[in-house]
Design goal:
23 helices, single chain, about 800 residues, alpha+beta, 5-stranded mixed beta sheet, 14-stranded mixed beta sheet, about 50% helix
């Protein structure tokens, strides 16, 4: 208690030092607490389900070469095989995304929904807040016309009416009975959802793989035994699933791993970055303590002369450090509350799993207390050891002006700050360069003044391809007649969407390629390439000649034409799709388009006319692209009205500018760059403060020496060079160490980079120059102060 009272009194008598140290620590501790809050919620906290450690995800995998696994979803038949033959699990359930059109109760809307096996909720241990969950028999067609609502949809659409139970609502124009409402706290791990409907399986369906699987492992079975069992089941499945040199297997993954697999590496990188920021803050405060300790040297010597042993002195000094750290921790925790909100606001939607659970809790408070005490020990030990080593005769003889010889330690701390700052700046610079290169990628089409409108046609209303074709043509006719529309067309799956159709393609009459050549297979209306600004390199676009009764045609991308007909004209050649008996004839060649994202390599495509698409799966999802003469958003209300005139019960999935769609694809790299850049900027600012503090203190300690130099003829420029030379020497050593560290550490960023190597000489050079400039700026004021020293005053200093 005596140590504590004395520490409080000592810190109170020097408020400038205390405030500076506490703020510096608060920045480092607050950044760590904010990131740990997310890490705790996403990576450390148990899943909010019953006995989550026994929950596993089952994935099918295609083995193309030894050690090369390509994970995929299961077909109905595949899931049924695993469910019936496996004995390692208490229960197993399948689920699949299935957006539905909600009509008949207000404005038609499309809501995110999931199809589930009836046992899905029991596997998770979840119960309905109102009503009940699914029963086992409700996976049969005769009993599957039921639905569960989310708490959000129940409140926003049905005004939280408890009488909703037993009522009928229209989903995809089909009546379904509401049997329950899930709790607001229910965290549905596959993704956001407002509706849940039973999954009706067709065991005869082998080709369409769309099912995800979750299972609860039996308490008596080990994960290794369960995986061996499912691998055995996969090997003995129908041999028709093994083709083109591929064969099926299966793997088990803990459900937590599947949920956080994409967020985990990024969060660990950010945790390492804020750890560097905290180390820089600790080095800063240690430097301040050394400088402050020089003024207290006489006081420490007096205490030692009165009988205080070295351990007693160290304990007193560490008590002061602990108080500083705890004060910094309290202020940092307040900053972390704001920081968590800012981080979640900046994060792209859906990129932080379990984001609703992210909040400061007891674990975060304990973490903050722990790192505060650790920081206090870290920055307090070296100054305490240094300052407690006193020579009584010398200290008492020279009085309070005796200075502990701590220059080497101060310089080492500044060098460490510069090295750590360079590592963070190098990482941020690599991400920034990667982001700029990604943004500069040509998507293969012109995004200016293009509006995209997407709809999902209900299979209960649009039961035949002819009905879908009629809706398509009526909507296109209305859009094209709108004033301000330059061109309009349609495609089933727009580039940069979440879904598309892919498959093998080969030259008709020739054996399939091995390995198969995979392309996307969109279906478009005439005028699509003109509306999107995609270059037609050869041949023609689809037109009115291409009807359901005419011979099938296709348009291929330039890479496919070069691959299959490197020396021939591709026009008139035939390509084989889906193993059809009547392969389409190539009538045109277009340029490559980025189908998935800007970071992906451009993939080839075989375009087919929507008028010749005979399958409902090609026609029930439609996206209209509209190129306008002016700002396209102005036409959005008109397009909504026109769609309602064609079908008043058809909701819109999305209506947005194409530029917004491309920009949204950059949300994740933009977030990564901003956040790491913010940490690097904070580290740079702290390093600048540290350099300034050390140089200012050094100038103050060399005042007499500088006065002597000036008295014997040194000019102001000579003094400036003297101080700057010392600053640049420290910066140079720190930069060299930082470059060596960055060459190792930045390798962990390789999976986040596009078109940039982890060791990029240009980036390293630029951040080194930036650090030199910052060091020079931080040294200018102490150097100018040194140059203005009055030699008469300086010589009276001692």
């Amino acid at each position: 208690m005596n140590d504590l009272r004395y520490a409080l009194r000592a810190l109170r008598t020097n408020p400038g030092f205390t405030i500076t140290a506490v703020v510096v620590l608060a920045l480092g501790i607050g950044a760590n607490s904010a990131i740990f809050t997310v890490v705790d919620s996403v990576l450390l906290r148990p899943l909010p389900y019953k006995d989550p450690g026994r929950l596993y995800a089952l994935m099918a995998a295609h083995v193309t070469t030894p050690g090369d696994l390509r994970f995929t979803t299961l077909s109905d038949a595949g899931y049924v095989d695993f469910e019936r033959q496996s004995n390692a699990f208490d229960s197993m359930a399948a689920y699949a995304m299935h957006s539905l059109n909600l009509t008949g109760s207000g404005e038609p809307v499309q809501v995110p929904a999931w199809q589930l096996s009836p046992r899905f909720f029991s596997i998770l241990g979840a119960r309905a807040e109102l009503g009940r969950a699914f029963r086992s028999e409700e996976d049969q067609p005769a009993h599957a016309n039921v639905v569960l609502l989310s708490d959000r949809l129940w409140r926003s659409r049905f005004r939280a009416d408890p009488a909703i139970l037993g009522q009928t609502i229209l989903l995809d124009a089909a009546p379904r009975t509401v049997i329950g409402v899930m709790p607001a706290t229910f965290d549905f791990f596959p993704g956001p959802s407002d509706l849940w409907v039973p999954l009706v399986l067709d065991p005869a369906r082998h080709t369409l793989a769309y099912l995800h699987v979750v299972a609860r492992l039996k308490a008596s079975v080990t994960p290794a035994a369960a995986e061996a069992e499912i691998e055995s089941i996969a090997r003995h499945r129908d041999q028709s699933f093994s083709r083109n040199g591929r064969h099926d297997t299966a793997r088990l993954f803990p459900l937590r791993t599947v949920i956080v697999k994409n967020a985990r590496p990024l969060l660990l990188i950010f945790l390492g970055a804020v750890g560097c920021v905290l180390l820089i803050a600790c080095a800063n405060v240690a430097t301040l303590l050394l400088a402050r300790g020089a003024a207290r040297h006489h006081d420490i010597a007096v205490r030692a002369s009165l009988g205080a042993g070295r351990w007693r002195l160290i304990r007193q000094l560490l008590t002061e450090s602990a108080l500083l750290a705890l004060a910094g921790g309290v202020l940092g925790l307040i900053a972390a509350m704001w920081g968590v909100d800012a981080l979640l606001a900046l994060a792209p939607t859906g990129k932080i799993p379990r984001a609703a659970d992210v909040h400061i809790n007891l674990a975060v408070l304990a973490f903050t207390l722990l790192i505060s005490l650790a920081a206090g020990l870290l920055f307090g030990v070296a100054p305490a050891l240094k300052l407690s080593r006193v020579s009584l005769n010398q200290a008492l003889q020279h009085g309070a002006r005796t200075v502990a010889d701590s220059a080497r330690l101060r310089h080492a701390l500044v060098i460490a700050e510069i090295a750590l700052s360079l590592i963070l700046l190098a990482g941020a610079g690599l991400l920034l360069k990667s982001f700029l290169r990604l943004r500069a990628v040509d998507p293969g089409f012109r995004v200016e003044n293009v509006l995209a409108l997407s709809v999902d046609l209900s299979p209960n209303t649009y039961r035949t391809p002819a009905q879908c074709q009629a809706f398509l043509q009526q909507t296109l006719d209305r859009i094209r007649s709108t004033p301000g529309v330059q061109s309009a067309a349609a495609i089933n799956w727009l580039p940069f969407g979440s879904l598309d159709v892919t498959g093998d393609v080969s030259v008709a009459g020739q054996p399939p390629a091995n390995p198969p050549y995979i392309v996307t297979k969109p279906a478009t209306a005439p005028g699509y390439f003109r509306a999107m600004g995609i270059r037609l390199l050869r041949g023609r676009d689809f037109d009115d000649r291409d009807t359901a009764a005419s011979p099938p045609v296709a348009i291929v991308t330039s890479d496919l034409a070069r691959r299959f007909w490197p020396h021939d004209d591709p026009i008139g050649k035939r390509v084989e799709l889906w193993g059809k008996d009547n392969p389409p004839t190539v009538v045109g060649v277009v340029s490559l388009v980025q189908q998935g994202s800007l970071a992906d390599s451009p993939t080839g495509a075989v375009y087919q006319p929507l008028t010749q698409a005979g399958r409902l799966m090609f026609l029930q999802h439609l996206t209209f692209v509209v190129r306008t003469a002016s700002e396209p958003v102005r036409l959005a209300p008109t397009l909504r009205v026109q769609l309602r005139e064609v079908d008043p019960n058809q909701p819109i999935q999305f209506l947005e500018r194409l530029e917004s769609r491309i920009d949204a694809s950059l949300d994740e790299p933009r977030f990564q760059t901003r956040l790491l850049g913010a940490f690097a900027a904070l580290a740079l600012a702290l390093a600048a403060v540290g350099i300034y503090g050390v140089m200012a203190y050094t100038v103050a300690q060399r005042t007499r020496e500088i006065g002597v130099r000036i008295a014997v003829g040194a000019q102001s420029a000579d003094i400036l060079r003297l101080v700057l030379r010392q600053s640049f020497a420290l910066s140079g050593v720190g930069i060299l160490l930082g470059i060596a560290g960055a060459a190792v550490v930045t390798r962990v960023l390789s999976q986040l980079l596009f078109g940039v190597k982890p060791i990029d000489p240009v980036t390293f050079l630029l951040v080194s120059i930036l650090l030199v400039l910052v060091a020079a700026a931080a040294t200018v004021f102490p150097a100018r102060r040194a140059a203005k020293v009055d030699p008469v005053v300086a010589l009276r200093y001692e």
